[in-house]
Design goal:
single chain; alpha+beta; 5-stranded antiparallel beta sheet; 2 helices; 11 strands; globular; disordered N terminus; signal
């Protein structure tokens, strides 16, 4: 009887563990760690790469950190900034109104000569990379692969940016 009870207990544990795995299977993948807040994440169309904006303890622009990541996995991802530092003036957020697509957001940051615009002002979201104000490339998110739009939490941890010509970015 004890062995049967032990067997049933082990089966229940396996079922519960399987249920937890299944619950996570429906969530969108990201390059963020479990203890980080996902401000944005998507799988890049026609690739194995993901783009994510991850944050931790980011209640204002001078607390916690915000980091953009791009790649196939957390360890091999391109990261900006390299260190986990408060976003201060590294990142800016803009509320964008593209009337045909509704209201969305841009998270903007500069890395050397390049300016990155992570946009959910269009669907599916896109990442535009600019040099000297000219669009160099666009990375579109998979529509069916799932994405998480720019979180409202980012509004508190990232400074509002100044209006610029990049506000019109819509991937075209």
């Amino acid at each position: 009887m004890n062995s049967r009870a032990n067997l049933l207990a082990m089966a229940a544990i396996l079922i519960v563990r399987g249920g937890i795995s299944l619950a996570h299977a429906g969530e969108h993948d990201s390059l963020c760690a479990e203890n980080e807040t996902v401000y944005f994440s998507c799988k890049i169309e026609h690739s194995q790469n993901y783009a994510s904006i991850c944050a931790k303890d980011n209640m204002s622009s001078d607390s916690g950190y915000v980091q953009y990541r791009f790649g196939r996995n957390r360890d091999a991802a391109f990261k900006f900034p390299d260190a986990k530092v408060p976003p201060n003036d590294l990142f800016h957020i803009q509320i964008i109104n593209h009337f045909r697509d509704g209201i969305g957001k841009h998270v903007i940051f500069k890395n050397g000569a390049y300016t990155y615009v992570v946009s959910n002002a269009v669907q599916p979201p896109e990442i535009g990379i600019f040099r000297d104000g000219k669009l160099v490339t666009t990375k579109s998110c998979e529509f069916d692969g799932g994405f998480s739009s720019i979180s409202n939490r980012a509004d508190y941890g990232i400074k509002q940016g100044e209006k610029s010509q990049l506000d019109t970015f819509d991937g075209s």
